[in-house]
Amino acid sequence: MIVGDVMLYREGLARGLDRLGHVEVVDSLTSPAATEALADTPPDILVLDISSPDTLDIIRPLICAQPGLPVVGFGVGGQADAMRCAEAGISSFVSREDSIEDLDQAVLMAARGEAVCSPRMTARLIRHLAALTGKAHQRTDNCLTAREREVASLVKEGLSNKQIAIELGISPATVKNHVHMILEKLNMPRRSSIGMVV
């Protein structure tokens, strides 16, 4: 599925990919229409025009609608754009200077579960991830109480709230409150994220 707000781009990409014959374009939609279409009939790959400044605002609902859906972003302007795309959940990047053949290859690689990213961008993403991990560890040490660190450690081991309650001699409701505070303090979206920083 190709998603973009400029019909000319969408139609051109659909025809170009069709001409190459490696992938089948099932639909070509604007971002609001794509959100609804993804709920009904999800494609194998989403090809997203990210050249518009507000595209990253709409990618999150698209990815939330279909977690695990590979997204190939095209029209990436530079490394800063690619970094924002990676943070939004886009797994492959095709720059503004790349060809329809490059996009075709990116889609085929995404279908195999591979990501397309230049070596320079890969290095930058690794450095960025290392910096985030370091900040997260620093946040853990600085802002969690001793009890919250204990709870976080047990969450990391995969224990349920009930198991943690038994282990620490507190109620499951208290554990739930601690987990909520940990997520809030570390600015994390879900419980499974705790294990990545503790």
TrEMBL record:
Transmembrane segments: none annotated. It comes from the Bacteria. This is Two-component regulator. GO terms for biological process: phosphorelay signal transduction system; regulation of DNA-templated transcription. Residues 137-198 form the HTH luxR-type domain. The lineage of its organism: Bacteria, Pseudomonadati, Pseudomonadota, Alphaproteobacteria, Sphingomonadales. PROSITE patterns: HTH_LUXR_2 (PS50043), RESPONSE_REGULATORY (PS50110). Keywords: DNA-binding, Phosphoprotein. The modification 4-aspartylphosphate is found at residue 49. Residues 1-111 form the Response regulatory domain. CDD domains: LuxR_C_like (cd06170). InterPro entries: CheY-like_superfamily, Sig_transdc_resp-reg_C-effctor, Sig_transdc_resp-reg_receiver, Tscrpt_reg_LuxR_C, WalR-like, WH-like_DNA-bd_sf. GO terms for molecular function: DNA binding.
